[in-house]
Amino acid sequence: MKRSIILIADGDAHARRLVDAVRSSGQWHVLEARDGAAALVQARDHRPVLILIGDGLPRGEATALVAALRDEPPPLRSTAILAQSDAAGPDERLWRLGFDGCVAPSGRPEALLAAVADWRPDDELAGAHRLAEQFGQPAIVPLIARFREELAAAVASLNGTPSQDAMHRIAGIAGTLGFDRVGSSWEQLSRGDAAIASIARREGRRVLAQIDRDAIFAPAD
What we know:
Distance between the termini: 31 Å
Shape: globular
Radius of gyration: 17 Å
Oligomer: single chain
Strand order of the largest sheet: 2-1-3-4-5
Number of strands: 5
Helix content: 40-55%
């Protein structure tokens, strides 16, 4: 099984527990950084699929790192970023800072592994690739590009009050283009199921990140 790259940024010596737990699963190639500046360099050099910012990194340094990552060109801009936090359920405060979710700082190793496993790539573009093979890249690539822009705007809108019509539109287009998990979660969200907001954001972010890394669908520089 191919290991996905995760970057763990944490200035605390207790971060070793995080690193060891994630590495023990065999699913991740783990990079470590002890401060924000080192984390940004590692992210640029290795393009991890997930960045976990531990609670040992000072808050100001952590938020500055997230802001810097969101200012990077794709694919770093769309990389999933998690915080260590005790927040339960959707945390709009973290979303507004640029984070995509959180993991509990004092959870058991199994809980940590389960939390980060949900963010591993899982062939999100298989359906889109089949469409490109069937109808040709000139027909499908522009559709994916337009969907990517709409999805990025929709994910950002979750920081506030998203439009129900926009969420329903995302769900419909996602289903048509083969992004079934995005379609399902955003359809539920459009029907008022606020409890699924975290999942909808995760599925949207995962697709954005994979589009931005794909040899066919990645945006032009």
